[in-house]
Amino acid sequence: MTDTLSTFAAAKLADLDAAQLRRRLTPTHRLDGLWAERDGRRLLSFSCNDYLNLSHHPAVIEAAVAAANAYGAGAGASRLVTGDHPLLGQLEARLAAFKGTEDACVFGSGYLANAGLIPTVIGPGDGVFIDDLAHACIWAGAQLSGARIIPFAHNDVADLAAKLGAERAGLRHALIATDGVFSMDGDIAPLDRISDLARGHEAWLLVDDAHGLGVVGQGRGTAALFPTAQIDLAMGTFSKALGGYGAYVCASGPVIDLLRTRARTFVYSTGLPPASAGAALAALEIIEGDDALTVRPLTKARRFTSALGLAEAQSPIVPVILGDAARTLSAMQALEAQGFLAVAIRPPTVPAGTARLRLAFTANHDDADIDRLADAVGVLMETD
Ligand SMILES: *Cc1c(COP(=O)(O)O)cnc(C)c1O
Predict the structure, then answer these.
(1) Looking at the chain, which runs of residues are DSSP E strands?
(2) What are phi and psi of 103, to 5 degrees?
(3) 4 alpha carbon to ligand 1 midpoint, in Å?
(4) Residue 164 has what pLDDT?
(5) 242 close to ligand 1 (CB < 6 Angstrom)
(6) Residue 248 CA, ligand 1 centroid: distance in Å
(7) Exposed (0-12), middle (13-18) or buried (19+): which is 290, by Cβ within 10 Å?
(8) Is 133's C-beta closer than 6 angstroms to any atom of ligand 1?
(9) What gap in Å lies between CA 212 and CA 193, rounded to an integer?
(10) What confidence score (pLDDT) does residue 384 get?
(11) Ligand 1 atom closest to Cα of 239?
């Protein structure tokens, strides 16, 4: 290793090691929607976003296999060339009906959706107001757009109002971008008040509901909790509660047509594979038909927060903030020794000083296991 690039990389890694911030892969065999095998040990996972355990649902797997058999393992090209296999149009029609919008556009992933959609609707001379804790791919899309980025304090409507008041007049177009359910905190954006501000300041509203679809608002997502909110761009993914892969944006007909012709991550990227589209269709079918299922992850999360006297969970995601990266890593190891998989989340995924166990509760978690986890986490919260 004598070349300068490898020397540079090794020095970077040494710095990350010293700060306990290096990330490493751990081969994980997910045995079903709950259990995962690591290093030959079976662990009960509280770290998967598979909130409805649909990744291993027989009907979803069967739909993926049937789609691959019918249309092949891959789309073969960008959708604008030959990759627009029939399941994609079906999936878009179903999503638009489910979300109550005129149309929908499927992307390869959530990251690709935000990285493509934001630069399509705003650019230099415009501004994008972003919640401080919004997902990394919203920031990436905003950076690619060349628009001015104006962060606002997390879920702080007064701060957003002040920033719109100060900045809006100097901008041509304005976009407000937020998560619906925040991925590392599990709390919910006040979409009714954010929407009012958007209308009042002639700004468009993008809501990334990756963690809301399927598990809040009767499975319909965060917007369903705020009937008065007007969301111009309702984005979400198939990779969380739907148990698969891929993403969508629901919007008006003209907006979706513009994305299909201009969003670079749509135009210059291969269409979502048939198996993923088939799985998403089957998962949506399950979610639409089973309100009792969609409410279960939240009920489970609330069992945990009430056992520990934490603020009541608003979604299936519950952060246990331990602060220090090293302390959080040792907490993860302590839980692993007791048979739980609860992955430590460290900066820069979360702000410095807020390293945490980010727990995710799912429909099929046993109440007794949740109680055991709460006991174990309670001990870790007390020890310093
Ligand atoms: C997971 C996630 C994404 C990225 O979605 P992928 O399909 O995994 O690329 C985007 N936004 C939020 C809020 C997420 O949690």
Answers:
(1) 29-30, 35-38, 41-45, 103-107, 127-131, 148-152, 174-179, 204-208, 233-237, 247-251, 317-323, 340-341, 344-345, 355-360
(2) -155, 175
(3) 34
(4) 98
(5) no
(6) 11
(7) middle
(8) no
(9) 18
(10) 59
(11) 7
Q: Scanning the structure block, which residue is given the tokens 């399509």?
A: 120
Residues with pLDDT less than 50, the chain: none
C-alpha distance from residue 211 to each of 56, 72, 257, 298, 377 (Å): 18, 29, 26, 12, 23
Which domains, from first to last, does the chain contain?
26-55+291-382 (3.90.1150.10), 57-289 (3.40.640.10)
d(CA 219, CA 211): 10
Ligand 1 atom at minimum distance from 240 CA: 1
CA dihedral 155, 128, 205, 195 (to 10 degrees): 50
Q: What integer pLDDT is reported at residue 1 of this predicted model?
A: 63
Residue 169 CA, ligand 1 centroid: distance in Å? 32
Q: Is the dihedral of CA 316, 317, 322, 327 positive or negative?
A: positive
Kindly list the catalytic residues.
183, 211, 240
Q: What is the pLDDT of residue 43?
A: 98
Q: What pLDDT score was predicted for residue 2?
A: 78
| pTM for the structure as a whole | 0.97
Tell whether ligand 1 has an atom less than 6 A from the beta carbon of residue 247. yes
Q: pLDDT at position 186, please? A: 98
pLDDT score at 55: 98
pLDDT of residue 203: 98
196 is written with which tokens? Answer: 């009012």
Judge whether 303 and 367 are in contact, CB under 8 Å. Answer: yes
DSSP string, 219-253: TT-GGGG-TT---SEEEEESSSTT-S--EEEEE-H
